[in-house]
Amino acid sequence: MESSAYNCDSTSGQCQCKMYVEGRACDRCADGYWNLRREDTANGCTPCKCNAMGTVNNSNICDKMTGDCICKANTEGPDCGQCKIGYYGLDYYNSDGCTPCDCDPGGSLDPVCPAGGPSAGQCDC
């Protein structure tokens, strides 16, 4: 059920919104939520599921239509929870999210290092 004129303030026109929904007409999700639901449910929007270590400003704010999180430069995935190829060590305090491998092209077998596990960041010599 969509917001209706029956639940609006007669002076301001502000409609009574479902949880996590905002706007005068209750037509958008609040920050940290996405997927505005038109059906009759108590929660109008779905919580974002961002990995704060990999998101810009370490936030839990996602695209209000797709639910995709806003990733730091060297992270990827819908939740920004993994390092891009060629990077390792997902870190909350790293402004880019992950550290470049920087494997020496003359001495390493592969320019890409493992992103996780016990050999994370270790170039294969």
TrEMBL record:
<dbReference type="GO" id="GO:0009887">
    <property type="term" value="P:animal organ morphogenesis"/>
</dbReference>
<dbReference type="GO" id="GO:0009888">
    <property type="term" value="P:tissue development"/>
</dbReference>
<feature type="disulfide bond">
    <location>
        <begin position="17"/>
        <end position="26"/>
    </location>
</feature>
<dbReference type="InterPro" id="IPR050440">
    <property type="entry name" value="Laminin/Netrin_ECM"/>
</dbReference>
<keyword id="KW-0424">Laminin EGF-like domain</keyword>
<protein>
    <recommendedName>
        <fullName>Laminin EGF-like domain-containing protein</fullName>
    </recommendedName>
</protein>
<dbReference type="InterPro" id="IPR002049">
    <property type="entry name" value="LE_dom"/>
</dbReference>
<feature type="domain" description="Laminin EGF-like">
    <location>
        <begin position="1"/>
        <end position="47"/>
    </location>
</feature>
<feature type="disulfide bond">
    <location>
        <begin position="71"/>
        <end position="80"/>
    </location>
</feature>
<feature type="domain" description="Laminin EGF-like">
    <location>
        <begin position="48"/>
        <end position="100"/>
    </location>
</feature>
<keyword id="KW-1015">Disulfide bond</keyword>
<dbReference type="Pfam" id="PF00053">
    <property type="entry name" value="EGF_laminin"/>
</dbReference>
